[in-house]
Amino acid sequence: MINEVYGRSMTQVAILIALLSQILLVILIVMTNSLSPAPAFQFEEAWQSIFTQGLWIILASWVAFLVSQTLDSYVFDRLKRAYPDRIVLRSAFSDVADLTLDSIIFVSIAFFTAGIPLLPLIIGQVVSKGLIGLLDTPWFVWYKRYLGTG
Length: 150
What we know:
There is one protein chain. This protein has helices at 2-6, 8-34, 44-51, 55-82, 87-111, 118-135, 137-146. With 150 residues, it is mainly α. α2 (8-34) packs antiparallel against α4, α5 packs antiparallel against α6 and α5 crosses α7.
């Protein structure tokens, strides 16, 4: 929606802000996990297992987010220029394209050392994210009309 209302350059700024906030969150979690727990805290092991993720999963998330959201902003912008009155087309197509790429990148990086078949994970993510991407299109259309620009 940022691309629709403010354009591609502001979308890129929002993508970078989101990525930086994810990096900051990981830094804060690492800092918190490095502190000694309070003596009365009985759930340190559970805390550590919840808030300690594998490096590959974190890296996969960052790379997939940055690449797929950059693609989304590019595809959406191109479709907006080519088809200014086709809001459903640009929303649905850019969502499916970026969510598919996000799934491929994330699963490939996060689980390549796990020794498990990656294709079923990728297909499952592509299908579920694709459905969610298509289901959010009516919300996007409504929001565009709410703003009075569509």
